[in-house]
Amino acid sequence: MPTLRTQIEINAPRAVVWDALMRKDEWRRWNTFLFDADPALSLRQGQAVFLSVRRLEDDEFTDFEPLITLVQPYNCLRWIAKMPGFKSESAFELQDLSPTRTLYTHQQRFKGILSTVFLPFIRQDEKQGMKRMARQLKRYVEHREYRQYQREKRDRRYGL
Predict the structure, then answer these.
(1) What's this model's pTM, rounded to 2 decimal places?
(2) Beta carbons within 8 Å of 72's beta carbon, 6+ residues apart
């Protein structure tokens, strides 16, 4: 089965990277590959969500409705998107490299008779989009503005 994969090392703890990944309503602030089309829907296992993808930065959006198949906090998020003859499984995995460094992996697997038709046309653009998202996630969580947001969120939680 055809697979696309990208990885990047992020200079932030896994919990920080996970928080940014799970707050899909904030994706538009940093992510030009995947967009949240319905912020009211959370990334919960068994939940369908409405997303848009833009493979190239100047491309049109393509809407899709994946089903969240796995949420393993701080480790893995997976979803499956289907249409007749085509199935795409996306996995976002986090692994500790050290207490302050995380390996982010984004993998997509394609199945179905139509994958042999569609994939040659989208493979390169999809891979570019995945790499762009990884770089943007890295930049976002390593940036001081995001860390400041985290401090303020913690302070509000504890009434400071």
Answers:
(1) 0.84
(2) none
Which of the four CATH numbers 3.50.50.60, 3.30.530.20, 3.20.20.70, 3.40.50.1820 does domain 3-157 have? Answer: 3.30.530.20
Residue-wise pLDDT for 90-104, tens only, equals 999 999 999 999 999
Identify whether the C-beta of residue 51 lies closer than 8 Å to the C-beta of residue 64: yes
At 81, list the tokens: 């998107």
> Do the bridges between strand 76-83 and strand 67-72 make them parallel or antiparallel, or are there none, so unpaired?
antiparallel
Query: What 3-state DSSP class applies to 11?
Result: coil
Phi, psi of 143, rounded to the nearest 5 degrees: -75, 145
Which amino acid type is present at position 10?
I
Per-residue pLDDT at 135: 96
**Spatial separation of the C-alpha atoms in residues 6 and 128, rounded to whole Å:** 9
The length of the chain is: 160
**What letter represents residue 94's amino acid?**
L
